[in-house]
């Protein structure tokens, strides 16, 4: 976000950030020669859906005492869970939890609408990769959430992302 409050994308070159824009066709970005007067770095994209895979790190599953399932655990986070990586994680007023936890994750950002994409074409839809923080209220996830992952993982702002997209 620039000092006028306008949102945009940028590319860091040496010490300056240059504005970039989404290509109209084919996906990806195209550079400009305009420099950006950045006030705050936000998440790299505006999200409609955040799909997550649970128990995707063997070590974490082992330390949790959970076996890795045959089929992956898929859950969603609300788009409102996304926030920039520097803002504080403020727990919701109604959340009474002593078991708030976090995990670093690799975020795969899909850059264009897709459905029923073949494995061979999947990477053609990836805009880039970013860092994510998967924040969880473990007691809401396990005891108070009926075993549903989304209950303890989708509070605002339980998904800090970015700021870079590579």
UniProtKB/TrEMBL annotation:
Domain Fumarylacetoacetase-like C-terminal, first and last residues per copy: 50-166
Species assigned in the record: marine metagenome
PANTHER family in UniProt: ACYLPYRUVASE, FUMARYLACETOACETATE HYDROLASE FAMILY PROTEIN (AFU_ORTHOLOGUE AFUA_1G02370)-RELATED
InterPro entries in alphabetical order: Fumarylacetoacetase-like_C (IPR011234), Fumarylacetoacetase_C_sf (IPR036663)
Gene Ontology molecular functions: catalytic activity; metal ion binding
Coiled coil (UniProt feature): none
Entry protein name: Fumarylacetoacetase-like C-terminal domain-containing protein
Record keywords, A-Z: Metal-binding
């Amino acid at each position: 976000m620039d000092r006028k409050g306008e949102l945009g994308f940028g590319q860091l070159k040496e010490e300056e950030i240059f504005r970039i824009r989404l290509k109209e066709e084919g996906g990806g970005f195209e550079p400009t020669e305009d420099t950006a007067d950045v006030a705050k770095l936000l998440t790299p994209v505006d999200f409609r859906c955040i799909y997550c895979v649970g128990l995707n790190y063997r070590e974490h599953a082992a330390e949790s005492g959970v076996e890795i399932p045959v089929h992956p655990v898929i859950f969603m986070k609300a788009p409102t869970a996304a926030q920039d990586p520097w803002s504080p994680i403020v727990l919701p007023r109604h959340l009474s939890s002593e078991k708030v936890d976090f995990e670093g994750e690799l975020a795969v950002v899909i850059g264009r609408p897709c459905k029923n994409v073949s494995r061979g074409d999947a990477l053609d839809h990836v805009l880039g990769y970013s860092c994510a923080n998967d924040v969880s209220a473990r007691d809401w996830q396990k005891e108070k959430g009926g075993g549903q992952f989304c209950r303890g993982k989708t509070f605002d702002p339980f998904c800090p992302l970015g700021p870079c997209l590579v």
